[in-house]
Design brief:
The structure holds 2 protein chains of 2 kinds. Chain A is of the alpha+beta class. Helices cover 42% and strands 27% of the residues of chain A. Chain A has 3 helices and 5 strands, in the order E-E-E-E-H-H-H-E. In chain A, a hairpin with a 2-residue loop joins strand 2 and strand 3. In chain A, helix 2 (54-65) crosses helix 3 (70-87). Chain B is of the alpha/beta class. Chain B has a 7-stranded mixed β-sheet, with helices on both faces. The chains are: A alpha+beta, B alpha/beta.
Chain lengths: 95, 409
């Protein structure tokens, strides 16, 4: 089962209601090291610090935000994870 | 107390409680400007902006400059943290485990860690490992900050890589052994051996054990007080740390050391500020509960001085006199004239640290004195706010503070 974990060289932070991912040079060599994200993405990031499967991420979003549409949440979580993998901000590890 | 001081303390109180501001009256433009300036001076702008933006009476459109300024601080700090985490992991891969002092360990106590800025990370190491750390730093692409650094002799060696926002200081001892407070290192001889593993944001770091760390924070504040003053953030850090680790502190050791260093009342006052002005009521041991103190003079000194008491050059120049006053207390030889002379003609070790050519050619010490005095005279002529009389006045005021808090007799 694939577990997705945040890379140690990426920090999630916030200021005045804005959520940010800030990456070390080694992680994001050629472009801007700062990515703005929304609150839900920040919430997912916090879960991924210790490593989570897609299923665990979906379950935590459903519980936190009391959303009924499971499929919509699954799509959103998969899209977020894909984006983070493409940027090299997270890695997938076999549990 | 000045209005902006009250406002700043209120922000810190809210930060400690992780709650919103309870201000019921809007602020005037002058009050905003004063608070903004004070926040910069004490390096707490992100904390202030974080609270202001959630305050119902804050008019965002009138103060659009505030958020971008705070955001820059936070991004910079987040970048430093990200880079440092990778550097620390690279050291671990080589079997090196330095001990964190302050920095990241304190940041983790804040609701949003990157809102507390640290320009560097201080790492305590065993002296015999210095050459390994030096090689590891160079291999990582860091360069020594001072080309004349002597990794065998210097008690601390700094390395940097500006492109990666990295500034690392490896310390063989927490304090300079050559300074008048070098004897404080005796309390930390086993600090590396006693270091503990601390999980910070998903990674495990070696940090000073809670009692050693608390002692270091108190003594570090003392050192900065001697050198021109302390910022309110250091008091905030100390009180937050104590609150987080209160069950793990060996208070009898803290009390003993503070007594030996003649800073019991001073340390007690730092906690009085925490309790009465920062909303952090740490349960202190009985021996300290009976110490009566008036925290207002120290608080005023702190808030008027900026982050390390260096927002005024006259204050910075006064530090040689206050450091000497503490040293005189240790040596038993009282002389105010001696303090002033020492300010004008610092000893070889002090000058060698600042003037590389003195380090290499000690015979040039008198030339360095002349160059230093000449620079100071030019500065006072150019900048009317820099005056030797003012430095001495400030020093005398601060010596009165040291007497009030029983640091000297």
């Amino acid at each position: 089962m694939m577990v997705y974990q945040a890379q140690p060289g990426v920090i999630q932070t916030s200021i005045a209601g804005e959520y940010l991912l800030v990456a070390a040079k080694e992680v994001q060599k050629d472009s801007n090291n700062v990515t703005e994200i929304n609150e839900t993405s920040a919430f997912l990031w916090q879960r991924m610090k210790t490593g989570c499967t897609i299923g665990e991420l979906v379950a935590s979003v459903l519980a936190e935000y009391e959303i009924d549409d499971v499929q919509e949440v699954q799509q959103a979580v998969k899209s977020f994870v894909r984006g983070m993998l493409d940027m090299g901000y997270i890695r997938g590890v076999d549990r | 107390m000045k209005k902006e001081y009250e406002l700043l303390l209120s922000v810190l109180k809210s930060t400690a409680a992780d709650s919103g501001l309870r201000w019921t009256e809007p602020l005037s433009e002058n009050e905003f400007a004063a608070l903004y300036r004070l926040s910069f001076e004490h390096n707490v702008l992100p904390l202030v902006v974080e609270k202001l933006c959630k305050w119902p009476l804050f008019e965002h459109e009138k103060h659009t400059y505030m958020v971008p300024a705070a955001k820059r601080f936070v991004i910079r700090q987040a970048r430093r943290t990200a880079e440092f985490r990778l550097f620390y992991l690279s050291l671990e891969k080589q079997g090196l485990q330095p001990t964190l002092m302050k920095g990241m360990a304190l940041r983790s106590l804040y609701p949003i860690p990157e809102q507390r800025e640290s320009m560097d990370e201080d790492l305590l190491i065993s002296p015999e490992d210095m050459s390994r750390y030096h090689e590891a730093a160079l291999a990582y692409g860091l360069t020594p900050v001072s080309p004349a650094a002597d990794i065998e002799k210097d008690f601390e060696v700094a390395y940097e890589d500006k492109s990666r926002y990295l500034y690392i200081e490896f310390h063989k001892t927490p304090f300079s052994p050559e300074s008048s407070y070098g004897y404080l290192n005796n309390y930390f001889t086993d600090a590396c051996k006693n270091a503990v593993s601390t999980e910070i944001d998903g990674l495990t770091f070696r940090t000073l054990a809670p009692t050693d760390h608390l002692l270091f924070l108190i003594l570090h504040i003392y050192k900065h007080f001697l050198h021109g003053g302390i910022g309110i953030r250091q008091i905030f850090d100390l009180n937050l740390f104590t609150r987080a680790h209160t069950g793990s502190i060996r208070w009898e050791h803290i009390i003993d050391v503070c007594q030996e260093a003649h800073i019991s009342k001073f340390a007690r006052t730092l906690y009085a500020i925490g309790e009465k002005h920062l909303g952090i009521d740490n349960k202190l041991p009985e021996a300290w509960q009976t110490i009566e103190t008036d925290e207002f003079p120290l608080l005023d000194d702190i808030l008027s001085g900026g982050l390390y008491g260096m927002n005024d050059e006259n204050r910075a120049h006064s530090s040689t006199i206050t450091v000497n006053a503490a040293a005189v207390r240790s040596s038993g030889k009282a002389s105010r004239i001696k303090g002033i002379l020492k300010a004008a003609f610092p000893d070889y070790k002090t000058m060698a640290g600042r003037y590389l050519y003195v380090n290499k050619h000690p015979i040039l010490l008198p030339s360095a004195w002349c160059a230093r005095i000449w620079t100071y005279l030019r500065k006072t002529r150019k900048d009317k706010t820099v005056k030797s009389k003012e430095s001495i006045r400030i020093a005398n005021e601060r010596i009165k503070l040291m007497k009030k808090y029983e640091m000297i007799s």
